Amino acid sequence: MIDISSRQTGPAAELSNFPMRIFTFDGLVCQSMEGLLQAFKFPHKLDQKRVCVLVGKIAKKVGRQKNLEWQSTQTLWWNGVAYEREGEEYQQLLDRAFNALANNIHWRTALLATGDEALIHSIGCADPKKTVLTEEEFCSRLMNIRARLRC
Known about the structure:
This protein is mostly helical. The protein has helices spanning 11-14, 33-39, 45-52, 56-64, 67-73, 88-101, 105-112, 135-150; strands at 2-3, 23-25, 28-30, 75-78, 81-84, 119-120. 48% of the residues lie in helices and 12% in strands.
């Protein structure tokens, strides 16, 4: 079992959403998955573009300022479109985001280096009303992408 966290080493740290992993999502260059996830909290495209280039703790800190707002409405945003947090369209948005990240060779190499190990994220939140990405949403996507990359 591999516990994904920026506090770990090797693939466990490299698969965290915090490291710089440049990828393009819907034509926008993102510097990290954390930046993109935090950008979903901002309804305006210019703010999203600004947040997408942030990395790690800085991205997380910037996104925190929007927690009360999005949590009270359970609405997240991308490219001018509102997403219900627990809606199927938001799950599809997350799928597309992680599929875009999978184009980053360093991330993909770290993912494949996990072999057949189960992936967990013990510091992650399980309540979708409180987080833009639950542990289950995160780890299941990684394991699904890993299985697909092996084919």
